[in-house]
Design goal:
By secondary structure, the chain is an all-beta fold. The protein contains no helices and 14 strands.
Length: 171
């Protein structure tokens, strides 16, 4: 899989479509060895780019750190069954990841200190994660359709616990 960067062309006239050019940054994982699905990119406190490989094989590279300067990447977390979908940093520099299987996990940027902060209903089919200025977590899920709007945004405290529905009835 290839990680690319994009830049907007700012010289387009007002109201005109803008052209986006992507430039190959580096290759992550050998080409054609296994399927990949990269999700949930975020920049860490040291400037590295972190993302998840949702469909990584058991014990394959599940959470990856990429140094944009050297173009070197490394696996910072792997396990047998995680399906990580998003990465985000809190204001203390901890990396949080959502697991589609129903967990929210926290670790240091090097992968150490890994712990599950929540496992259950409010993290099932979890997709994206974000923090507000007070450190509270907001987690979206992929539930719901236009015909059955059951998706939601869940709100967790800064420790990743005590969830409640922040906004429900989403498609």
């Amino acid at each position: 899989a290839v990680v690319a960067i994009a830049a907007m062309v700012a010289a387009a006239p007002a109201g005109a479509a803008k052209t986006v050019f992507a430039k190959k940054l580096t290759r992550i994982l050998p080409q054609g060895k296994e399927p990949v699905l990269f999700e949930g990119g975020s920049f860490g406190p040291e400037g590295n780019f972190f993302f998840a490989n949702v469909i990584a094989a058991p014990n394959g590279p599940k959470v990856i750190s990429l140094d944009p300067k050297t173009k070197k990447w490394k696996t910072i977390h792997t396990d047998k069954d995680g399906m990580y979908t998003s990465t985000q940093f809190d204001n203390q520099g901890n990396l949080w990841v959502t697991d589609f299987a129903g967990k929210i996990d926290e670790m240091k940027p090097d992968g150490s200190g890994f712990k599950t902060t929540y496992s259950g209903k409010f993290a099932e089919a979890s997709d994206d994660i974000a923090f507000d200025q007070q450190g509270n977590l907001f987690v979206t899920n992929t539930d719901g359709t236009p015909f059955k709007p059951t998706g939601e945004i869940a709100l967790f405290n800064p420790q990743g616990q005590n969830p409640k529905t922040f906004l429900g009835g989403l498609a």
